[in-house]
UniProtKB/TrEMBL annotation:
GO terms for molecular function: metal ion binding; mRNA 5'-diphosphatase activity; nuclease activity; nucleotide binding; RNA binding. Keywords: Hydrolase, Metal-binding, Nuclease, Nucleotide-binding, Nucleus, RNA-binding. Decapping enzyme for NAD-capped RNAs: specifically hydrolyzes the nicotinamide adenine dinucleotide (NAD) cap from a subset of RNAs by removing the entire NAD moiety from the 5'-end of an NAD-capped RNA. The lineage of its organism: Eukaryota, Metazoa, Ecdysozoa, Arthropoda, Crustacea. Residues 8-353 form the RAI1-like domain. Its cofactor is a divalent metal cation. The keyword RNA-binding applies. GO terms for biological process: NAD-cap decapping; nuclear-transcribed mRNA catabolic process. It comes from the Eukaryota. This is Decapping nuclease. It comes from Daphnia pulex (Water flea).
Length: 360
């Protein structure tokens, strides 16, 4: 089918998570892109960044606490905006001031859905609950058992954080400081609102950096960039593999939040980045049409959201939870009532539900 209606994502707010992953209502973790001067015209240049520098001193995020917190940071932001009477997301005609959106989630979940039509290996499980007129979605991830390939993945992800340190400054006129300790907890998160096929969505997205000329508040993410590292692409086979797998992931992540450019650092196996290239997100889609089609990706995402809406009873409450499970082998999505077996608490904590039920 044709590409579904998709309105340009509007940035309706933001928050920071500090080095201890505490919620802070400010721009303290916003980072500014600071490219080497040689890259000024083309966005590309030669560099020499060692991604292994200081990696023994890394502070890693506690995945278990993220699993426990679920949507809590985003929910905190919603309560704060409801108090501030945020016109874009709160229904002022209604005495209870509910949300004006049908779905609340994080960008990672939308990216997951967009990629699903081409996913042949990874299964996924999504937990959903309905409250007032919105459905809240959260991807359940199992705690990963430590093994060789996980250790390699971990190292690569730390390299990604180190790469950001080489290109990001904490103020518009500041300089990057790659000697700083890498702390993977800190992040700056934008909250976006869009419509896919007429369904209004509210979602949080961790963002890497904004161009130096930009000043908050940001109406959209046009001036933000995504930062990525990739192994040098030296032959047609490697290029084909990139177009087949990675380009869709990169495109989905940036497209769904309206980020137009990706700065890529090409590295070797020892973590040395020798070249930077600025990529156009739209170009990723164009160069990969033999491998994946963006309309198929987005139509699936819309179809799934509609399916969730149909499956969850209108009269269910925030105590009722539902599971949507995708099996990559059979390509089937199943739906069932979740009876407390996958979680230690409700997706929506009582402090959120109670606060949303009081008139603002």
């Amino acid at each position: 089918g044709n590409f579904p209606e998709f309105t340009r994502p509007k940035n309706v707010g933001s928050f920071s998570l500090d080095i201890h992953r505490n919620y802070v209502n400010d721009y303290s973790e916003l980072r500014y892109l600071s490219m080497p001067p040689e890259a000024s015209t083309s966005g590309s240049c030669k560099v020499n960044f060692d991604l292994k520098r200081g990696v023994s001193r890394v502070v890693e995020k506690d995945e278990e606490s993220i699993r426990q917190k679920m949507l809590d940071d985003l929910l905190r932001w919603i309560l704060q905006e409801r108090k501030a009477e945020h016109k874009n997301i709160i229904d002022h005609q209604h005495p209870l001031r509910p949300l004006l959106v049908e779905f609340v989630c994080y960008r990672g979940l939308l990216t997951l859905l967009i990629e699903t039509p081409y996913e042949c290996q990874e299964n996924w499980t999504i937990l959903a609950t309905r409250f007032q007129n919105s459905i809240y979605l959260w991807q359940l991830k199992e705690s990963k058992k430590q093994n060789g390939s996980i250790a390699v993945q971990k190292e690569k992800s730390i390299w990604g954080f180190k790469f950001e340190q080489y290109l990001c400054a904490s103020s518009p006129n500041g300089n990057p400081n790659p000697n700083e300790q890498v702390n993977t907890n800190a992040e700056f998160c934008c909250v976006l609102k869009t419509r896919i096929g007429g369904l209004p969505l509210l979602y949080g997205a961790e963002v890497d950096a904004v161009t130096k000329e930009s000043q908050p508040p940001f109406l959209d993410l046009q001036n933000f960039v995504e930062l990525k590292t990739n192994k040098h692409i030296g032959n047609e086979m490697q290029q084909a593999a990139f177009n087949r797998f990675k380009s869709m992931k990169w495109w989905a992540q940036s497209f769904i939040v309206g980020i137009p450019k990706i700065v890529v650092g090409y590295r070797d196996d020892d973590g040395i980045v020798s070249r930077l290239e600025t990529m156009d997100v739209n170009q990723l889609r164009k160069q990969s049409t033999d491998c994946w089609k963006s309309n198929i990706c987005m139509n699936f995402c819309l179809k799934f959201l509609k399916f969730v809406k149909e499956c969850i009873p209108k009269d269910s409450t925030s105590n009722d939870h539902f599971l949507f499970e995708f099996d990559a082998m059979s390509r089937v999505i199943s739906f069932r009532n979740e009876l407390g077996e996958t979680r230690s608490r409700n997706l929506l904590p009582s402090w959120y539900v109670e606060s949303m039920q009081k008139s603002a």
